[in-house]
Amino acid sequence: MTDIATAGAYALGDRIVKRMGYGAMQLAGPGVFGPPKDPAEALAVLRAAIAQGVNHIDTSDYYGPYVVNQAIREALSPYPDDLTLVTKLGARRGDDGSWLPWNEPADLVQGVEDNLRNLSVEALDVVNLRIMGDTHGPSEGSIADKLAVLADQQKKGKIRHLGLSNATSKQVTEARAVAPIVCVQNMYNLANRGDDALIDELAALGIAYVPFFPLGGFFPLQAETLSQVAGELGATPLQVALAWLLQRSPNILLIPGTSSRAHLAENLAAAKLKLPADALAKLETIAAPKA
Fold first, then answer.
1. Which whole number is the average pLDDT over 120-144?
2. Under 8 Å CB-to-CB from 150, ≥6 apart: which residues?
3. Would you please indicate which residues are annotated as catalytic (active-site) residues?
């Protein structure tokens, strides 16, 4: 069994989760749309993740849509007592696989009910409000009214904790005036470090930061540097990128995704990789210049 305990743990609401988790997005078909290519392997990956110590799974009903949450239910229900499932609301999939906003009050309430049914739980551990802007990254704009809908669902006992996805620092501040926020999920990696200040801000508040796309946006020269460091350490580039994130800040929780058990084991092994000072110095050159 792969031991991921060396990565440590962090609070996610009233739960303590291991910092190396699992993102279920890749269990859907191509483009995160349609059923898994290999349904049996999808179930096996989920069960292997739990067997290897994962107790934090990130998902959404718009992965598929629906099929990923249904796979989680089939593979893992009844769920282990220490498992925390984190889902997202605020978007839906078009018939052509497009990603569309779905964040009117009635949409969000329906999304809560859909997630409860598809995951077969009485309450959702954590729900992230996915903020759909005009770009792929965060964009400013008030989110108080939308979060208030989810806060009302929380008061009704259908949601335990709330988080944000694709959020700015200003939106985090606005959200915390509406309800407690336990996590923020944004794109962040060695090459895209626009959230450096936000990570430190959240760490001071005891709020988890969950980066997605750990290898997203790398240029060839940056990838060459990462590969060089990985070769020197006898690791894969993704393992190095994940290990760097774990060492970046103690409030960072990782959710690398995969649809294969072999790749799952490689990802989880990154929790045991300690990057020495010389490797960290080389990796620091990868960061894109700040605007």
1. 88
2. 89, 108, 112, 127, 129, 159, 162, 179
3. 63
